[in-house]
Amino acid sequence: MDIVQFNRAAVLESVRVVERAAPGDWDRPTPCDRWTLRLLVEHMGAQHIGFAAAARGQGADASAWEPRPAGDDPVAWYRGTAHAVLDGFARPGVMEGRFTLPEISAEATFAATTAIGFHFIDYVVHSWDVAATLGVRTALPPAVVEAALPIAQRVPGGARRELPGAAFRPALDPGERAGADGSGTLGLILSTLGRSPKWRPPQGG
């Protein structure tokens, strides 16, 4: 599998877990601070739209990255955004181009493999975010999880992870990593990126 195929598997898994959401689930708290499930899914969909634009060479357009409401059918809306980015990454010639990703750098552009890697690691983690919110398990293929680990380990640390709205929080201390679902490669990815594999929805959430 190449990065496009790994990414496709992660995105389709995110669609599968979002499809598990019932009408009463959209206000549930998530592992992402201050985000309900609806806000998380809207963020995920907006990123799909932005990356799809970047794959077309239009990533510098700020409007491509703007938050968007998911409307009355968040599952259908999210499914549509996911297929838009998958189609964008599958376009002929995409792997020879460069991506403009203003949320990562206002000056640099990124090789397609690198840019799709950014997207891929987000959707490995966001698949888990949604699954944890709903109390279900992810079904990411082992090869996909193994491919995500070195990308997670290359994400820069430092003060930027402390900022409000940071994509990933500081890595957890080893003592915080243990627990149910905390072992194995996915647990290591989550804790490396500041997610506690032990996270559960608050009682009554």
Provide structural commentary:
By secondary structure, the protein is an all-alpha fold. Helices cover 47% and strands 3% of the residues. It contains six helices and two strands. Strands 1-2 form a two-stranded antiparallel sheet. The relative contact order is 0.16.
Short description:
By secondary structure, the chain is mostly helical. The chain is 47% helix and 3% strand.
Which properties best describe this structure?
single chain; 205 residues; mainly alpha; 6 helices
Question: Mind summarizing the main beta sheet?
Answer: 2 strands, antiparallel
Counting H and I runs of at least 4 residues, what is the number of helices? 6
Globally, the shape reads globular
Q: What is the averaged pLDDT score?
A: 91
Rg, nearest Å: 16 Å
List the helices and strands and how they pair.
Elements: H1 3-18, H2 37-55, H3 74-89, E1 98-100, E2 109-111, H4 112-134, H5 142-154, H6 184-192
Antiparallel strand pairs: 1-2
Helix pairs in contact: 1-3, 1-4, 2-3, 2-4, 4-5, 5-6
